[in-house]
Amino acid sequence: MLVSARPPVDLLSDSDIAAIDAAWRTIVAEIGVQFENPRATALLAEAGQRVDGDTVLFDADWVAAQVAQAPPAWTWHGRNPERDIPVGQGTTAFAPTYGSPFVLRAGERRNGTLQDLRDLVALIQDADELDVAGGVVVEAQDIDVDVRHLHLLRTLAVESDKPFMAAVNSPVAVEDSVRIADIAIGGLDGRCALTAIVNSNSPLRWDERMSDAMMGLARHGQAPIVMPGALLGAMAPVTLAGGTAQMLAEAFAAISLIQVVRPGCPVLLGVGLPITDMQSGAAGFGGPDLARGVVAHGQLARHYGLPTRALGGGLTTSQVADAQAGFEAMQGIKAAVDARADVVMHAAGWLDAGLVAGFEKLIVDLDVIASVCVEYGPIAVDADTLALDAIREVGHGGHFFGVEHTLARYRDCFHRPALASTMNVERWRAAGAKTAEQRAEDLWRERLAAHEPPPIDPAVRDEIDAFVASREQTAA
Predict the structure, then answer these.
(1) Rounded Cα–Cα distance for residues 348 and 339 (Å)
(2) pLDDT tens by residue, 415-449
(3) How confident is the model at residue 312 (pLDDT cuts 50, 70, 90)?
(4) What is the 8-class DSSP label of residue 31?
(5) Domain spans, the chain
(6) pLDDT value at position 284?
(7) Can you tell me whether residue 199 is helix, strand or coil?
(8) Phi then psi for 226, rounded to 5 degrees?
(9) Cross-strand partners of 33
(10) Contacts of 160 (CB under 8 A, 6+ apart)
(11) Residue 55's pLDDT band (boundaries 50, 70, 90)?
């Protein structure tokens, strides 16, 4: 986790924030938000909101009061308490890619499998740069869809000891997630051990599955990540201001429902809106438009007292781990840190607009995260680091290679990247003249070969396995 030494970046003026605040209030009150779920509309009607069919017209002040009930800080618990993530407490945690149906592994793009999922979780577990085991890191398409979530959850809970995410493809999957998390951490007992992304069906619509998911998580006190699913120019206005107002209307309507189900339930506000390529109609993940939206939305989240999950991670529309993938990932990661995001999703492994989980891209992104964490870290200024004795010792026109101050620090005085090459061209050629993508393949292969699963109480593992086996029989 990163504790940034820099203040968060503010892009919006007070008058900008006031105008956006007025705009989302107008949207929820005069246009309303659809909930294609009679259970959700019934709860909101009971709470005093006006329901017209499946459209809810909100009292904007009531919505603001509901949003204010969401706690500004809480803890996301993992199986290993040393891995717990303090949300809303000044740290930035990094989570891997999520939701990809395909993998790119050693140059081969294909459907994801359970073995791919397990290998990716192993790499994530061993990566100090990542704080979250993830959720659907890749779809295990060789497992029947009715029980796929069980194998996903078992992999996350047993083969990693980091906090993980719920499966939300059905209400049953949510309940299975809660049960496995309960076993893994030794009883929820009011603790939050799960988050999960819930996306609106923009513009201004929450479908039945997503509203069921957020309500199911809320009943158990687990944290929905409320993430409007809009693209600027397609499902939202082409302007960032208009898209932001719509995003907040959708998100605040959902957070209001969550707070009706369980007052004080933790949430994360998803920040960042991708754009639409207005020449092709394709989604644009990465680039300056997404990055500045992440920063602006982070400022708004601080204004409303909400912890955030940033869409600005290692996002790219590139199909391979090339230069485009690297510079777009760097821009996204830095935007998330500038926004002071609490959790950065898709921080490692995302390729091809999220369609692909890339093994080489994962390694590239880990180098990006490590580099950014050094860049945003503190600078020590004290008698030791000012090095006046060493400067006196060297004097005029000398060098610092052999002085004690250097010899005591040369191994770790500067950041040493795991992937990026610092060799001269002769050494690089002698080592095979490998590109960053080729070196990344070597690294993930080495790390998988050396991987050892984290320890787990055999009784806990057996209870999880027994639950999964029982649920598989029920689903058969």
Answers:
(1) 18
(2) 999 999 999 999 999 999 999 999 999 999 999 99
(3) confident
(4) I
(5) 68-375, 379-414
(6) 87
(7) strand
(8) -85, 110
(9) 56
(10) 79, 121, 124, 125, 133, 454
(11) very high
Could you tell me which of 319, 339, 355 has the C-alpha nearest to residue 437?
319
CA distance 283 to 106: 26
Instruction: Name the class of domain 68-375.
Output: alpha beta
Q: Tell me the two tokens of residue 264.
A: 């004080």
Mean of pLDDT over the chain: 97
Query: Cα dist. 301→14, 279, 333 in Å?
Result: 14, 32, 18
| DSSP conformation class of 264 | T
Instruction: Please answer whether residues 275 and 231 qualify as being in contact, where contact means their C-beta atoms are separated by less than 8 angstroms.
Output: yes
State percent of the chain over pLDDT 70: 100
Q: How far apart are CA 383 and CA 389, in angstroms?
A: 9
pLDDT value at position 475? Answer: 82
Query: Which token pair is 162?
Result: 């980091």
Count the Cβ atoms, other than its own, within 10 Å of residue 423. 10
Predicted TM-score (pTM) of this structure: 0.96
CA–CA distance, 369 with 371 (Å, rounded to integer): 5
CA 409 to chain centre: 35
Residue carrying structure tokens 């949300």: 87
Rounded distance, CA 228 to CA 249, Å?
A: 9
User: Which of 214, 219, 216, 294 minimizes the C-alpha distance to 254?
Assistant: 214
For the stretch 241-253, pLDDT in tens is 999 999 999 999 9
Q: 343 is written with which tokens?
A: 């959790």
Output DSSP code: residue 431.
T
Residue 140: its H or E element: none
Give the residue-averaged pLDDT of 327-347. 97
pLDDT of residue 186: 96
Closest to 58 in 3D by CA, of 97, 22, 30: 30
